[in-house]
Specification:
This protein has helices at residues 2-27, 32-62, 77-102, 112-118, 121-135, 140-186, 192-219, 226-246, 249-254, 260-279, 293-318, 359-377, 397-418, and strands spanning 382-386, 389-393. The protein has 420 residues and is mostly helical.
């Protein structure tokens, strides 16, 4: 009953979203391409939230259903939740993978496939629900291998996120510095608000990082917790080096766009990754917060909300960053003629001459994002099949994925500073 209610709710909500975004796009003069992407982003958010609900309450909702796959699962909510999340995210991943293949080579809205990208949402939502429901009848042995595919696909998506984070940090700094210089040049002001904005943002992020490091040293780096001490100390020392390098005169001369703001973004994010990695460790004296179910639930909820938002944001922007990631070709666009504007000059079809983003890469990003959500909600657990039973293996995979991600982003950022 729970799965049927969730599917119906998802269908109704998705159809309403498609119609609402379309109407809002016209009312607010939002471009067609932007409205389409927002529909997919919101759909991704809804499905991720449904997967989160199943990760906690699948045992209650599915225990009474005559699903043979659940007979292999021990009577515990963890196994039920993992199996449900694997199947829901599998449906979402296949949904976007099929569209990624379908839209290869679309150049403008005159291509009939472009009409399918921007419309037919009720049909597509029903197709997504059909795939997801069908996934609950796929044997569990398949998802043992699918779990490892999720590990590698999610890892690749994390790398995309890291690249985009560095891009975001540079864009943020360049935008505020440009605004400050423009105000100073035009005489409209001294640019002080942008200067203090940069200074305040940098101070806030560095202060937050220092507080997190102090808390981790106090609670997670006690006697006998050498691995945690290594994680925290390494992140601290490398971030200090990055801050010093970005301020070096030779680096400033070669990279005028470099600054302490970017370093503070990287410092805060990598410090958060260390904190999150330690929280993912099995409960022990070195991770005392994990022993409290209340603290663990709060941490999971906050982490899930933060991660889903960042996944949606990075996926939305990754679609337009294919060139920067070394995927796809640059899309040139000439100014729109009056033929594609209404009487008031608002854009009717902003992709009549060239698409604004790669449709295929857009859906590939969502496909990888679905694999990442699968790993996030199961805490990077893998499945094993033995003696006709499904076992959920909760190891240190999540810890090392997060720690390695922090090291990768530090190396990538250092490369942007010193690369010739």
């Amino acid at each position: 009953m729970g799965i049927l209610v969730s599917c119906l709710a998802s269908s109704v909500a998705s159809c309403c979203i498609g119609a609402t975004c379309s109407c809002c796009g016209r009312a607010m003069s939002v471009s067609k391409s932007s409205a389409t992407r927002w529909v997919y982003v919101i759909l991704f958010l809804i499905v991720s939230f449904i997967a989160y609900l199943f990760s906690h309450w699948a045992y209650v909702w599915l225990d009474k259903l005559p699903l043979k796959i659940l007979e292999d699962c021990p009577a515990n909510s963890t196994c039920y939740g993992a199996l449900a999340v694997y199947r829901i995210t599998f449906g979402l991943a296949i949904f976007h993978l099929i569209q990624a293949l379908l839209f290869i080579g679309v150049k403008d809205s005159s291509d009939g496939r472009a009409q399918f990208q921007d419309g037919w949402f009720p049909l597509k939502f029903l197709f997504l629900i059909g795939i997801t429901v069908a996934a609950f009848f796929i044997p569990n042995s398949f998802f043992v291998y699918y779990g490892w595919l999720c590990v590698f696909g999610a890892g690749f998506f994390v790398i995309i996120q890291l690249i985009l984070l560095i891009e975001f940090a540079y864009s943020w700094n360049e935008s505020w510095v440009r605004n400050m210089e423009d105000e100073m040049d035009t005489g409209d002001g001294k640019g002080s608000k942008w200067y203090y904005g940069l200074l305040g943002s940098t101070a806030f992020m560095l202060s937050g990082s220092i507080v997190l490091i102090a808390v981790m040293y106090k609670y997670f780096c006690q006697s006998g917790c050498g691995l945690n001490t290594f994680f925290v100390t390494t992140a601290l020392l490398v971030n200090v080096v990055l801050c010093l390098v970005c301020l070096h005169p030779k680096v400033r001369d070669a990279r005028p766009s470099s600054g302490i703001l970017q370093s503070s973004v990287i410092t805060l994010y990598t410090t958060y990754l260390v904190w999150s990695a330690i929280q993912s460790e099995p409960s022990s004296d070195c991770s005392p917060f994990n022993q409290s179910s209340g603290s663990q639930n709060v941490s999971i909820i906050i982490g899930a909300i933060f991660t889903i938002i960042s996944v949606c944001y990075s996926t939305f922007n990754a679609s337009g960053s294919a060139v920067q990631l070394g995927i796809g070709e640059k899309l040139e666009s000439e100014p729109l003629t009056a033929e594609y504007k209404d009487a008031e000059g608002n854009v009717i079809d902003d992709e009549a001459e060239n698409v604004k983003y790669s449709y295929s890469f857009f859906h590939i990003s969502f496909c990888l994002g679905a694999l990442y959500i699968c790993m996030l909600l199961t805490n990077w657990m893998t499945l094993s099949h033995s003696n006709d039973d499904i076992n959920v293996d909760r190891g240190m995979v999540s810890v090392w994925v997060k720690i390695t991600s922090g090291w990768i982003i530090q190396i990538l950022y250092l490369w942007t500073l010193i690369a010739p």
